[in-house]
């Protein structure tokens, strides 16, 4: 008995201990996902300033978030990373946001990011004075980017068709950094773009803005992850709010960070048209990233235009795909905690 039972006992003990060890190892890793990966576009002002603050300071960790902040060139690239599981949250304008929501049900909007202009720029000496004058011309636009449905909407309102026929407008697919040079070289007659590419186009092509509209940017999070780790989403949003305040109170420092990351010409930085009200915040209570009914209406109009022009496979209900409960918790926490301004450390 002795040998067989002892052997069985020893094997059982090893299995039990092994199970306990395995459980402990998993338990250490599984309870909270500490490595939220949050994507952002390095060439996009004013988002770039907010995100460089999160990347270059300890604000996120001060609020309990150990998120990382990988940067990308363009919205569609960020969506690819989101769908492939490389990132857990994104910072994009309404167009890439809608594209992501249309093809992946596991994403939810949790807060407003910024307000920004989309603009139509032509050379200063161009005879194009309004949308109607685009008939028979070419417009450089990043397909799938923020200004794509904008130009389609404007052309549709004037009854102008897209195509290569007589009186139609040819849309040329250009990435944002390619637009200003193409306009300066005369490769396109106009560009539909956003900041800082608007400022660059105005400079390189000696351009002028003949039309513009306001779009909304959003913070989106993987829904399954948010439901599993709600406290991490709340912590991240608290960090966003505090980062907005840091931007407002340290504009020169933050602009320098953005210039370094984006390789943007610092001389042109002052020419960027900024319409985000949070840059004027004096206190944490002044920062507002809630999504208003007007924001929803404006953004839904863009989403509908995208569907009507076959840019998305299905119609997206922006408000229906939004959950601001995480943000409401973040605001409630900050109302009692306040900013962590005195504890902020520059990591750069």
UniProtKB/TrEMBL annotation:
Domain Solute-binding protein family 3/N-terminal: 47-261
Subcellular location per the Swiss-Prot or TrEMBL entry: Periplasm
Gene Ontology cellular-component terms listed: periplasmic space
Domain of life: Bacteria
Pfam families, A to Z: NMT1_2
Keywords: Signal
UniProt name for this protein: ABC-type nitrate/sulfonate/bicarbonate transport system, substrate-binding protein
